[in-house]
C-alpha cells in the first residue's frame, strides 16, 4: 500500500499493515487461512486522513506548527519496534509459504 503525500511515495509492505496470517476453524475439521487488516474505516468531516501507528512507526514524522507543515522520512532507528517488525515479516512470509 502506498500513500502519495506531496508527490512522494510512502509505501507500507503487506506485513506492515496486515496481522500475521493464521488458521481458523470454519467448520468441523475444516480450517482455512485467514488474514486481517490493521486498517479500519473512520468517518471524517474534512479533507483529511489519519495514517496511524504503523505508518508513523516506519516514517519519522516532524510536526512544524509554526509553518503549518509536516516533514516525513523513512526511519532508520533500530529499536524494539523494528526488531518486532522483522520478526513479524518472517512469520508473515512463513505463513504465506505454508
What report would you give on this structure?
With 98 residues, the protein is α+β, with helices and mostly antiparallel strands. The chain has a single domain (2-41, 49-97), classed as Cathepsin D, subunit A, domain 1 (Beta Barrel). It contains three helices and six strands, in the order ββαββαββα. The chain has helices at residues 14-17, 52-58, 80-97, and strands spanning 2-5, 8-11, 22-27, 30-34, 59-64, 69-74. A two-stranded antiparallel ribbon has the order 1-2. The chain has a two-stranded antiparallel sheet with strand order 3-4. Strand 5 and strand 6 form a beta hairpin. The longest helix has 18 residues, at 80-97. It is extended, with a radius of gyration of 17 Å. The two termini are 23 Å apart. 2% of the residues are buried.
In terms of structural class, how would the helical and strand content be classed?
A: alpha+beta
Secondary-structure element pattern, one letter each: EEHEEHEEH
N- to C-terminal distance: 23 Å
By CATH reckoning, the class would read: Mainly Beta
Shape: extended
Main sheet: strands, sense, barrel? 2 strands, antiparallel
The Cα radius of gyration reads 17 Å
> How many β-strand stretches?
6
**Average pLDDT:** 80
CATH topology tier name:
Cathepsin D, subunit A, domain 1
Helical segment count: 3
- Which consecutive residue ranges, at least 5 long each, have pLDDT under 50? none
Strand content: 25-35%
The proportion of residues forming helix, as a percent range, comes to 25-40%
Number of domains: 1
CATH architecture: Beta Barrel
Strand order within the widest beta sheet: 1-2
Amino acid at each position: 500500500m502506498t500513500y502519495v503525500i506531496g508527490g512522494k511515495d510512502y509505501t507500507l509492505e503487506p506485513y506492515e499493515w496486515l496481522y500475521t496470517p493464521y488458521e481458523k476453524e470454519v467448520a468441523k475439521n475444516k480450517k482455512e487461512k485467514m488474514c486481517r487488516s490493521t486498517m479500519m474505516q473512520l468517518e471524517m468531516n474534512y479533507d483529511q486522513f489519519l495514517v496511524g501507528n504503523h505508518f508513523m512507526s516506519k516514517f519519522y514524522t516532524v510536526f512544524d506548527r509554526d509553518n503549518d507543515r509536516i516533514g516525513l522520512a523513512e526511519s532508520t532507528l533500530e529499536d524494539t519496534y523494528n526488531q518486532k517488525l522483522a520478526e513479524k515479516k518472517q512469520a508473515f512470509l512463513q505463513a504465506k509459504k505454508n
